[in-house]
Amino acid sequence: MWVIPPKQNAGFVYGMEKVISVYERLFNEKQPVVTLDESPKQLIESKHFIGRDGKKYQDSIYTRQGVRDIYMVFEPLAGKRFCFVEENHNRFTWVKIVSHLLDTTYKECEKITLVEDNLSAHKPSAFYEVYEPEKAKAYLDRVEFVFTPAHGSWLNMAEIELSVLQRDCLDRHIATQAELTREVKAWQENRNAKAVKANWHFANQDARVKLKKLYPTI
Asked: pTM for this one?
C-alpha cells in the first residue's frame, strides 16, 4: 500500500524524483543500482500433540524465541537478491552488511548506488565508528547513498522483495535462527536461479500526473 503525504510537500517530491531518476538508469555492471531493506521476524516454537485419532496437531500454545532481522539486498536490473539473517538492525549491523557487499559481491565495481529507507540505523557516519578513517572513507567513496523520503518506503524495491519472501515462505511459525536462515537461503537461491527482475514502470512524468497534489503550486 502506498503511504504518501496528505498535501503539497516539496521535500517528499524531491526525494521521490531522485529515487525514480535512479531507477531510470540503464544497467551498468560496474556501477549497479542496489536496494536494501530490512524486516523483523518473530521466532516462534509451536507445540504439538497427538489426537485420539493418532494424527499430529498444532497446539494453540507456543513459545516466543526472540526476534531476528532479515536484510534484503536486491539488484533490480540484474535479478539478483542477497538475504542476511541478523540478530538486530542497528547501525553497526548495517555497516557490516554494506561493507560485506563491497568486499564480495560488488568487489570489482567502481561504485554502487544504494537505495534505502532513511532510517536512523542507515548512517554512513557509522563507518567511522567501525573502521579506521582510511578504510571507512575507502568504503564510502564506493557508495552513492540515495534515501527514500518519509512516507515513501514504497519506492524501495527491496521492500517489494521482502513482501514476496514473506508470502512465499515466512507466513508460518519458525522456531530457530538456523531454520529461518535455511528457509531464506533456499528462497534466495530459487529466485536468483530464475533471475527475477523488477518490473518498474513508474517514471517522474507519471508521478507529476498521478501525484500532482503533492507538488507545490508555482
From this structure: 0.87
- What confidence score (pLDDT) does residue 46 get? 66
- The packing angle between helices 157-169 and 177-193, to 10°, is 110
pLDDT at site 211: 94
Dihedral Cα 78, 84, 90, 91, nearest 10 deg = -40
What average pLDDT does the segment 84-95 reach?
96
For the beta sheet containing 33-50, the strands, ordered from the edge strand earlier in sequence to the opposite edge, are: 80-86, 56-75, 33-50, 112-117, 143-148
With bands split at pLDDT 50, 70 and 90, how would you rate the model's confidence at 57?
low
Q: What is the pLDDT of residue 4?
A: 81
Residue type, 60: S
- 215, with CB counted inside 10 A (0-12, 13-18, 19+), is middle
For residue 95, give the C-alpha cell.
Answer: 555497516
Give the torsion through C-alpha atoms of 84, 89, 92, 95, to 10 deg: 50
Contact, 161 vs 26, CB < 8 A? no
**Contacts of 81 by beta carbon, 8 Å cutoff, 6+ apart:** 72, 73, 74, 75, 158, 161, 188, 191, 192
